[in-house]
Predict the 3D structure of the following.
Amino acid sequence: MSKGTLFDKVWDLHTVGTLPSGQTQLFIGLHLVHEVTSPQAFAMLRERNLPVMYPQRTVATVDHIVPTENQARPFADPLAESMMQALEQNCQDFGIRFYNIGSGHQGIVHVIAPEQGLTQPGMTIACGDSHTSTHGAFGAIAFGIGTSQVRDVLASQTLALGKLKVRRLEVNGPLPQGVYAKDVILHIIRTLGVKGGVGYAYEFAGTTLDTMSMEGRMTICNMAIEGGARCGYVNPDQTTYDYLQGREFAPQGEAWDKAVAWWNTLRSDADAVYDDVVVFNAADIAPTVTWGITPGQGIGVDEALPTLDSFAEGERALAEEAFAYMDLQPGQPLQGTPIDVCFIGSCTNGRISDLREAAKVVKGHTVAEGIKAFVVPGSEQVKQQAEAEGLDEIFTAAGLEWREAGCSMCLAMNPDKLQGRQISASSSNRNFKGRQGSASGRTLLMSPAMVAAAALSGKVVDVRDYLRG
């Protein structure tokens, strides 16, 4: 069993008691809600005539169903408008802070909480969204939960959870040119598999993480769930504190100094015991692209697709299914694969640093003929900052569409969808069948810079060729 890790410390600090099932009743410090998984939970409270126990600990925004072109109300999609109205009413009735469209703070839930300073080290955080693990970048323990658990947190501010094992994932060395946080996490998932983290919390560490920006760390923790881990985190350090200081909900003045002193005690001890340790060398990581139907089916952009005999017997059927679905052949190069749509955005890669890197690639170039390419900032604040820096002008001059904040084509619960058998170069987090809005659509996951390069070429290319030039 792990001992002395940040996970153990935060878990113990938030333990209310042990339930008859053997699970821990865990206090949740911050609850984030959006329009998709909360309506039923609020309805359950109403059925039982229950209040929200600590409304000040719940924060809401709207992101999944938000159109990124025409945001006029009512929305064209009646279901989206219904969800929107339900969230507005529920927040009003239960006294919950709501960042609505036009507030200046609306955006993807995992983008706005950090930028507001709501996400802080040592917290337990829950949200009815798989990618809540994003917030672990700050040294928090953050869980994606289902609708019935959303109800439980609203009603009791606690969750019933079994304690996880802890695996330390060390990545050491400087990242090569053209390799980003997205490539790091895709490489880890490719190596350990999409089920490798089942039953674990992932502690991301090593010199690569130590020198990485907060936004890069958020990208890595965001996809911990895609590797099967229940949550992922990075120990807080000066990079964390520099990001948080001065943000609206961060401690101020003397309280800030006290908070930092306490946050430093939460870091995993030098002699912490882990259930497992895996070490990676950053020099081994190339720009990485998924070729299949899980985030674990990825390769370096300069590699050929794997042959069927390279898979373990238990994985071969899934590989065959992926090759057939994607219209790809074992052993062929992935580089040069034609692309139809290029999407830059999502809770994984819709932050300002992501947009800056993509803009560097497209500046002075033009999107290839016939390619639909668009950029969706992760929040209204990101959009405002990008426009202040002129990034929107770089994108539009190159032929990419500049949109409003939202989840967009990541889950496609809005008008941004693939059509038919279109193939997408996407900076999002999942490449499941039908994930981007078409039952037969195909998704290749990659970094924002790689998506930008694909938009210019109309096919999968190595972004390093653009960066060298």
The mean pLDDT is 97. The chain has three domains: 6-161, 165-284, 290-468. The longest helix spans residues 78-94. Residues 290-468 form a domain with the Aconitase; domain 3 fold (CATH 3.30.499.10).
